Amino acid sequence: MEPVKVGLLGLGTVGGGTVNVLQRNAEEISRRAGRGIIVSHASARDVNKPRICQTEGIQLTESPINVVTDPEVSIVVELIGGDTLARELVLKAIANGKHVVTANKALIAKHGNEIFSAAQKKGVMVAFEAAVAGGIPIIKAIREGLAGNNIEWLAGIINGTGNFILTEMRDKQRDFDSVLAEAQRLGYAEADPTFDVEGIDAAHKLTILASIAFGIPLQFEKTYTEGISKITREDVDYASELGFTIKHLGVSRRAENGIELRVHPTLISKRRLIANVDGVMNAVLVKGDAVGPTLYYGAGAGAEPTASAVVGDIVDVVRVLTSDPENRVPHLAFQPESLSDTPILPIEEVETAYYLRIAASDQTGVLANITAILADSGISIDSMLQKEHSSEEKATIIIITHTTIEKNMNTALEKIHALDVIDGDVVRIRLEHLDAD
Description:
Blueprint: E1 4-9, H1 13-24, H2 26-33, E2 37-43, E3 59-61, H3 64-69, E4 75-78, H4 85-95, E5 99-102, H5 105-122, E6 126-127, H6 138-145, E7 151-157, H7 160-172, H8 176-186, H9 194-197, H10 200-214, E8 224-225, H11 233-241, E9 244-255, E10 258-269, E11 281-288, E12 292-299, H12 303-319, E13 351-361, H13 366-376, E14 381-389, E15 394-401, E16 404-405, H14 406-417, E17 427-431
Parallel strand pairs: 1-2, 1-4, 2-3, 4-5, 5-6, 8-10, 10-17
Antiparallel strand pairs: 7-9, 7-11, 9-10, 11-12, 13-15, 13-16, 13-17, 14-15
């Protein structure tokens, strides 16, 4: 049987890694897929640029449309990033009856509904395992391995750059700016780090995970997104003193009145396994009603970890090339006509616990006023820590609350800010227990 020919759009880090994995493990991959798989075509901005892979035998072009329209190519692998040109090329590939594999989380999060609809009409597959958490097979785990479960919630460290920064701030008592600069020097963060540190990258990935977990359309625009650029070394230290670690977490939970979809800094107990995922590593914790909590851990980026997911998707596509399109695993885990219109909850309706850091004058009655305001808003206190600064006649009050609805916390903080004794803004960081029950 003739080998399946693959065309790559993009021959950078992940593209080169994909070629290397396919070439190095060709025999094993053929045994798994049932036939050979070769990269026959590839596009790159500069075909003469040195590569991390061997390109002998690959037809190189600087025009990606040549790959998309070539009749010899059966599977198009999109690795160019962005969501404009990539969208056009993917839709063109689908229109030409080609299967698509992509590592592009922005493309899927923002345009996946359109792309999957087009693919269904043409009877082709769009595989996107590498779009979330690099080499961790989290898409397949939720979509297929946990198909017998009612997913209750998931929480993930799904951006390695942010996790590296928070780990360094905690372990080496460093400030955000200095660690960010190091992350840029090491190549973990881009020159413009906005997507990573402000949570946009994680929000793209969470959008995809939530859609697969809960059977809802992709709704990136409704994802609450908050970054880590305002996290201070002071908060990292206080959280640690109270037994918590701050992680940049994507959380999605099935609530009574909708689906929570949120990315933000989060306190997690040091006892939780996910709290001990450090550096650039990723991890996703998924709670199913039958299986209970399951944790998926691994490299969230890099040439070969991401290529591992890309090649896994290529193998999946090859396995079903001759199958009936109606009997394939649905793109978003649920049959397209069965996707739910369950609403996405606004952040004001989300229920969680909180860490509060309040700077106030060191006077009698201040703490009593603060606790009274919280009580009036139906917010109970779990634990508290007070740090006095005698030279400035100031005190820092750290409060950990029990769970409450965010709008109640907003009301309480407005009243606390209005007190004359409060110095500056109250720092608020959400807290998740991630309990198994």
